[in-house]
Each structure stands twice: as C-alpha cells, then as structure tokens.
Amino acid sequence: MKALLLFLLLLALPAQAELKPRWELGMGVAAATLPDYRGSDEANEMLLPFPYAAYRFDWLKADRNGVRATLFDSDKVELNLSAGATPPVKSKNNQARQGMSDLKPMIEFGPSLDFKLWQSDNQDTRLDLRLPARAAFELREGMHYSGWLFSPRLNLDFLNVGLPEGWRVGLVTGPTFQDKHLNAYFYSVDEQYARADRPAYSASGGYTGWQFLGAVSRKFGKTWVGAYARWDTLKGAAFEDSPLVRRKTYFTAGIGVTWTLAQSSEMVEVGDD
Question: Considering its fold, how many domains does the chain have in total?
C-alpha cells in the first residue's frame, strides 16, 4: 500500500507551466505486487480502485502530486503534505508471524519540506531534495499513534528525454529512519510469542534501509497512465536481526490508470504538476 501511495502521490512529475482545469473529478485503478511488510518473504498482488479528485487554489493544490501549499514566497522551497499507508496483515496467513497479533492497517501523514536544487534551462530536467517527516497511526477502533518516520529523498525528473513527446520519467532514492515505537510494532517479538525458530526480540529505532524508485507516466487526453518499479534493501537496518525479517532485499512494481470524468471550464496556470 505504501508503494501504491508513492506511485499515486509522486509519480506525476513536475513539468513546465501550463493551463489546467480549476477542478477535476474522475476514477482510477492501480495494481501492484507488494510484500506483507518490509522484510517479509511473502507478497500479495493488489488491485486498488480509487476516486480521483483535483482542486487548484492559488496557494493550495490537491492532485496526483499530492497536496501542496505555498506558505512563503520562494520558487526554490515548497512545503507539501506527505502521506503513506500500510495494509493489514493476518498473522495466520504469514509464516513468520503465525501465532502473533495481526498487523492493523496504518496511515502516515506529515509535512515535507522540498528544495529545488537544480533545473535545466529548458526546464525539462529537475533535481529536488525532499524531506518528508510523517506520524504513523494504527487504525484500531479509532486512530492510535504508532511512531514517526523520516525519509529524505533525492528526486530527479525528466520530461521528454529520450522518449516520445509527453512521457515523464522520475528517479527517487534515499534512506528511511523510524523511531523505536514504530519499529517495535513490526519487528519486535514479545516473550509470549517466542518459539524455537522465532526468539524474543526487541527492535530499536534508527536507520531502516534504503529505497530506489523509478517511474514513468503520460497523459493521453483525459486518461493518465503510469508505472513504477522499486528496489528496497534492509541491510544495516536497526531491526535487521529480527526473526521477522525473512528477506533483506526485494523488488516491487505496479501500474495505474486514471480517467477524468468531469472538469471545470475555468483554467488556471500550474507550473509544477
């Protein structure tokens, strides 16, 4: 689910200024192969239909790029909203977690301070530094705070580079860090759940691995299509020795399509979506 959110919120890449409708409504579908959790050796194929809505204020935009607010007058720095999610896991269906408590669905949200480091003269290539910090909440009879994470990212975007006109390519890489509470939720093993092949384990906070993501997207009229591939390594992670970590490197991929079904007649200039 987190990979799908990265795909849906970050895949539409910055472009040159253009006119777009003030608002859009539509629908979409995304499909991906995802591990039960980072470090799991079991994966599931997910098909996720979703509504699509975009609204573009002069100072606030909500669309496929996520939610972005212009809170200060600078073309080099943006304060955006970062979001993520983790799907539920039934422990009876996961060999490493059998007999343990189920993992509940989790959502993450928080600010992201983004810096434009470099842009080509024709604006076809752009390098950004993104600094998202998010709080995580377990969805269990309400929202329960589960910890925080920080995932600095270098984001390199290309428009019309070595591809037919209209295609956009993005490369994203960076480490992730999580506090002890969040790592413990996924990787600690309490004494009551310990067994011969799953000793008790207490996870600590800190570095939690490195990710590389590549994505392509294009819009055909009112239809948007995209695909992504991500490589994730947990080598050196604070919880690397947890008995729940069965795989330290893995690869995921997904595709998505959205259709705009209605839009406003009013057009506004948009320079970064």
Answer: 1
**CATH number of the CATH domain containing 61:** 2.40.128
Separation in Å, CA 71 to CA 41, 58, 80, 113, 165: 43, 11, 9, 11, 33
In one-letter notation, the amino acid at residue 57 is F
Q: How many angstroms separate the CA atoms of 148 and 88, rounded?
A: 18
> Each residue of 114-138: pLDDT tens digit?
999 999 888 789 999 999 999 999 9
Q: Is residue 90 part of a domain?
A: yes
Read off the tokens for 124. 């076809």
Query: Which residues are registered as beta bridge partners of 231?
Result: 212, 251
**Which pLDDT does position 12 carry in this prediction?**
39
Which range of residues forms the domain containing residue 66? 2-260
Report if residue 265 sits inside a domain: no
Burial class (CB in 10 A: 0-12, 13-18, 19+), 86: buried
Report residue 7 as tokens.
Answer: 């795909």
Report whether 181 contacts 150 (CB < 8 A). no
Query: At CA 9, angle to CA 30 and CA 50, rounded to 5?
Result: 40
Instruction: Determine, yes or no, domain membership for 210.
Output: yes
**Coil, helix or strand for 243?**
coil
> Does some domain include residue 269?
no
